[in-house]
């Protein structure tokens, strides 16, 4: 394991250690095909797809969730859930009790997707359903709410870890503690990865010269701004490709690539296969 990997693991552990979650509600819901539910903003929510698939739409994006996927929504905006096919979903509301919620929402994406959560963290996925049973049978049992909160903390923390391991980034949260100027540049890239960012424009965001910005960024993040931006775009590309509503060309355009060919080359370097091949494999139903 490289020094950078050790540092990244340690940083993630420190970040997760600050998170403590309180469960506000949880239930297991069966949704017939095309059932649509609109959920208001203002509350952090999660959905875990047990069977079937869901289309999830927010003001900023739309994506398809399949069996085994877990999604955590910041609660900033309302969202609409539609059963693309008959589905069973565990859904609930959370409150971050042991952290600065404003900072957390500013760093985590509005829609945090832990794709293949049941495969990556099978024990945690089982715990989601155990959580529902604990809530359903909690009437009159002492300590049930405390136990449910502990379960929620484990599940949500595992989802954040899965997201981070799959290309998500807590950098602006962690880096911001050491250099708020670099954190501003990271937040700008994460907020608009399709923008035609250059070293000069990012240095202006960070209120720094090009050379100082580039050196400080590499020191804190472990890679150049250009490599970080590419990795961020590929993270977003995987999410966009999981939506059947977007063509590959539309995904390329959203991410700032001037042509499908340029996007395909970047994605192939990232995933080892073309966007079309990756999409077909990702959209195959779970066995």
From TrEMBL:
Keywords: DNA-binding, Transcription, Transcription regulation
Molecular function via GO: DNA-binding transcription factor activity; sequence-specific DNA binding
Gene3D superfamilies, per database record: Homeodomain-like (1.10.10.60), Jelly Rolls (2.60.120.10)
Protein name per UniProt: AraC family transcriptional regulator
Keyword Metal-binding carried by entry: no
Domain HTH araC/xylS-type: 183-281
Organism encoding this protein: Leifsonia poae
A Pfam cross-reference name: HTH_18
SUPFAM superfamilies reported for this sequence: Homeodomain-like, RmlC-like cupins
